Amino acid sequence: MKKILVTGGLGFIGSHTVVELQNAGFNVLIIDNLSNSRIEALEQIKSITSVKPDFYNIDIRSKEALKSFFDTEKVDGIIHFAALKSVGESVQKPQEYFENNVDGLVNLLAEIKNRNLNNLIFSSSCTVYGQADELPITENAPLKPAESPYGETKQIGEKIINESCLSNNLKAIALRYFNPIGAHKSAKIGELPLGIPQNLIPYVTQTAAGIREQLSVFGDDYPTKDGTAVRDYIHVVDLAKAHISALKRLINKSNKTNFEVFNIGTGKGTSVLEIIKTFEKVTNQKLNYKIVERRSGDITSAYADTTLANKELNWKTEKTLDQALLSAWKWQQKQ
Question: How is the chain split into domains, by residue range?
Fold first, then answer.
């Protein structure tokens, strides 16, 4: 049984990916510092899969803690999620984002090199494209100057990994996510940020639940069909399964180059107002929202061309926007 390390494995995407890894027969180890996740997710993973992954409370910024972990554990692959992830927050706290997202990755790559490890999946983002010239966005789209420090940390992360692949013969895949939403069908794991949500869907669900008084829609003067920003919203379980496909590609040596990138999305753009209307339709809840000024760091529109991932990873999305929003609401109701 292959042993896989998942950094940030108790977070939103990480926990869903751990479940899919275990369902696929992998032995999973989790590193997480619980800065934006909860230890309860560990028991929830066990209740879904009947297997409790080994957990290490480690901050990847600590070289000593990482060294100690790799002194005791030999792994066959690594899926690297551990990072700060809010576009808006990164504009306010750029130094924290570079320290977490870049320095942490460098520490991890040093251990990978020193121990001759391989098979790295990197949690990247569509923010590396900035505001793309053409939609849908293909992997060949130029990487524009980032609109936020968060996006810049993902660009830098890809560059560092690519250089490591060239110099150390590392095999790696960067998955450029679009906007993951939703929750596991069991409603035992989902997106539950600590503090005020930085992403749209948890703010939507918390507003519907009465936890937040009002949802702010950042801008209605974008050049889009209804004036609100457009994104590609993908069900988190579909996204998690893409990691399994990418990992198997590396383990089976099916990769075509040492460093590959794939867009992971649905290929469909949805505006913020469309999200609100769809949520109201599938949940029968009315949302209290108001239009406010645009948020710094936000782009107008982004949705994926997923042709490459469909073909090379033999992966495609299976779940609908309705299903994703309903699952997010069912998860919220259990909190």
Answer: 3-183+233-266+305-317
* Arithmetic mean of pLDDT over the chain: 97
Selecting among 56, 97, 129, 150, the annotated active-site residue is 150
pLDDT surpassing 90 at residue 88: no
What does the pLDDT read at residue 297?
85
pTM: predicted TM-score of the whole model, two decimal places: 0.98
- Residues 227-270 have pLDDT tens digits of 999 999 999 999 999 999 999 999 999 999 999 999 999 999 99
Yes or no: domain 3-183+233-266+305-317 corresponds to CATH 2.60.120.10:
no
- Residue 129: active-site member: no
Reduce the secondary structure of the chain to three states and give it as a string. CCEEEEECCCCHHHHHHHHHHHHCCCEEEEEECCCCCCCHHHHHHHHHHCCCCEEEECCCCCHHHHHHHHHHCCCCEEEECCCCCCHHHHHHCHHHHHHHHHHHHHHHHHHHHHCCCCCEEEEEEHHHHCCCCCCCECCCCCCCCCCCHHHHHHHHHHHHHHHHHHHHCCCEEEEEECEEECCCCCCCCCCCCCCCCCCHHHHHHHHHCCCCCCEEEECCCCCCCCCCCEECEEEHHHHHHHHHHHHHHHHCCCCCCCEEEEEECCCCCEEHHHHHHHHHHHHCCCCCEEEECCCCCCCCECCECCHHHHHHCCCCCCCCHHHHHHHHHHHHHCC
